[in-house]
Design goal:
heterodimer, A: mainly alpha, Helix Hairpins, B: 21 helices
Chain lengths: 102, 496
């Protein structure tokens, strides 16, 4: 089996890609996708630690289940707000969300 | 896992988490009523009534457990005095918000059912954050509050509301992901999700895994800074505050921030406090930066809601100061004094900001504008409202005879006691800066002529009650702080 370090490295890379996407992408749907990537990177960590961490145990997998549920709720709300916003602006570009600044 | 849950009776649950159970039940009841009742019955204000009763009950049930201790699931959910005082604070804040909303709903088109039960669920989330000692429950509590807040911020049918909510959601979700990622490292290194055990193990393995622990710590620090709107992670706050319905703005400023602090203190104190010197400087830097930048940016605002939002950013800086001495004092046993100062200022700040936002709802409704010029001549239109607003603003700036002064004084005293003289000086300096922008509103209220005839503005009974209670708290805590401080200084907080 691959050592735990490779899973952690993959999770860290996924997290960084997600953070980069969330901070730079212009389409709000891609931004939400990137946030999901960050959350799933954390889930990967939890699963890897639960299976082959320093002290393996079931708690990490349970934590992962909870965080998946929470992430689903979050993105559902995100899409609902996006629909409300789209009705107002006819756009999913974050550059159009500029009514309020500073 | 089964062994943890076996033998768990309703009595155990009720003893430790009665307020949460009551509010959750009330929330589901409101959900059900919202679905089945016809519209003309709903108009009678039943939902606000049920919410208010459940919040009073929750606060009373929390207070009834004063001095007791207990836990569920092998110490993953605890009843201690820290949890009790925060639960009372949350129930009180949300009660005021529900009262304020009862008036707001009459003038602004909002889905009232969702609005009320989401407030209750958000409060449950806040209570879980204060009471939980397990990473999993802490995270779920945090998300319960956050997701409820995102929806509430976007409920107004306006372009600004949706935009503010979207910004809040994206930045809040990134913050949650950072916190979760940091938590996953804490779990991975210790093999437990219990904060107490994790802290014990982390202290032993600190030197071997310093790098990875610090990465997790910094990610959590960034995530929590977003949740309490500390600089440089504050950019969402003014937009979300401006777009949200005004009572929800007050909820975000008071309850969300207090809950963020409740969880932050738990996590950092339990998991990382033994190696405070390695990371304490980060929080101190954030505290200093938040005080300065929040107050500076508030000076240039023309929109009253945005100005109060930036002022609330600045207040997070003051609140972080006792946290900074708290963790240092952890070795010397001075932890209770810092906790009391922080809690006192949280309560004082919550009352002042709710009062200020309550006045703002009256002004913006009549003037149909959120500009600070809408306050012009308020004294001529409604002297009581202007006087109350004056007290709230002076209190937030730290004027003597208000709770804001006592709170800031206690915080500065704590900073001096732990040797951070420059932080105490900064508190004083930024308070002077705060006077600059609060005086802008005071001058308009008392010394300018009202626009357009100056006919009197009526406030409804519900708003009057909220303003009166906030005023009584602000002045009461300012004149006789001993009443509360005496009680707080006798607390054991974490039940050891």
């Amino acid at each position: 089996m691959a050592p735990v370090g490779s899973f952690l490295a993959l999770a860290a890379v996924l997290f960084c890609i997600g953070l980069y996407g969330a901070l730079t992408k212009r389409n709000i749907i891609i931004v939400l996708l990137s946030v999901e990537l960050m959350l799933n990177a954390a889930n990967l960590n939890l699963a890897a630690f639960a299976r082959m961490g320093i002290a393996p145990g079931i708690a990490g997998q349970i934590f992962g289940l909870f965080s998946m549920t929470v992430a689903a709720a979050e993105v559902a709300v995100g899409l609902a707000i996006l629909i409300a916003l789209y009705r107002n602006r006819n756009s999913t570009d974050v550059r159009d969300m500029d009514l309020m600044k500073w | 896992m089964t062994s943890v849950l076996q033998g768990l009776t309703f009595g155990d649950l009720w003893r430790v988490m009665a307020p949460e159970l009551v509010l959750t039940a009330a929330g589901f009841l409101l959900m059900l009523l919202d679905a089945v009742l016809p519209a003309r019955v709903k108009r009678l204000g039943l939902s606000s009534g049920i919410a208010a009763v459940s919040l009073v009950a929750a606060g009373a049930l929390a207070a009834a457990r004063f001095g007791e201790s207990g836990s569920l699931g092998q110490g993953s959910y605890v009843l201690d005095e820290y949890a009790v005082v925060f639960k009372i604070l949350f129930a009180g804040i949300t009660l005021l918000i529900v009262l304020l909303s009862a008036d707001y709903h009459r003038h602004v088109e909002l889905p009232k059912g969702e609005y009320t039960y989401l407030l209750l669920f958000g409060t449950v989330g806040a209570m879980v954050m204060a009471s939980s000692l397990d990473l999993i429950t802490l995270f779920v509590g945090l998300e319960l509050l956050s997701v409820s807040s995102y929806i509430l911020a976007g409920l107004r049918r306006s372009s600004k509301s949706a935009e503010g909510a979207m910004k809040y959601l994206v930045i809040g979700a990134i913050a949650s992901a950072c916190i979760l990622f940091g938590m996953s490292y804490v779990y991975g290194l210790t093999g437990t999700t219990n904060l107490g055990e994790a802290g014990f193990i982390l202290a032993q393995i600190w030197d071997a895994y310093r790098g990875i622990i610090l990465i997790g710590l910094v990610l959590m620090l960034a995530g929590f800074s977003v949740k309490i709107a500390a600089v440089p992670f504050h950019m969402w706050a003014p937009d979300a505050y401006e777009g949200a319905p005004t009572p929800i703005t007050a909820f975000l400023a008071a309850a969300s921030k207090a809950a963020g602090f409740a969880m932050l203190v738990r996590v950092f104190l339990y998991a990382f406090s033994l190696h405070f010197p390695e990371w304490g400087g980060l929080w101190i830097a954030i505290a200093a930066l938040t005080m300065v930048v929040g107050n500076l940016l508030a000076i240039v605002q023309r929109n009253a809601k945005r100005m109060l939002a930036y002022s609330s950013v600045g207040q997070a800086g003051y609140l972080l100061v006792p946290f900074a001495d708290l963790t240092r004092a952890y070795h010397g046993g001075n932890v209770f004094q810092s906790m009391s100062a922080m809690y006192f200022y949280l309560a004082a700040y919550a009352l002042m900001s709710i009062g200020a936002f309550a006045v703002l709802t009256v002004v913006t409704r009549h003037a149909d504008s959120e500009d600070i010029d809408a306050f012009a001549g308020l004294y001529r239109r409604e002297p009581r409202l202007a006087a109350a607003m004056g007290v709230f603003l002076l209190g937030m700036a730290g004027m003597p005879v208000t709770s804001g002064f006592v709170g800031k004084f206690l915080i500065a005293l704590g900073a001096i006691n732990t040797g951070y003289y420059w932080l105490a000086a900064l508190i004083f300096l930024t308070s002077v800066m705060a006077f600059a922008y609060y005086f802008g509103i005071l001058r308009r209220m008392f010394f300018q002529e009202p626009y357009g005839g100056g006919e009197p503005w009526k406030m409804s009974p519900a708003v009057a009650v909220v303003v009166f209670l906030s005023l009584a708290g602000t002045i009461g805590l300012g004149v006789a702080p001993g009443l509360v401080m005496h009680g707080l200084s006798g607390l054991h907080w974490f039940g050891q």
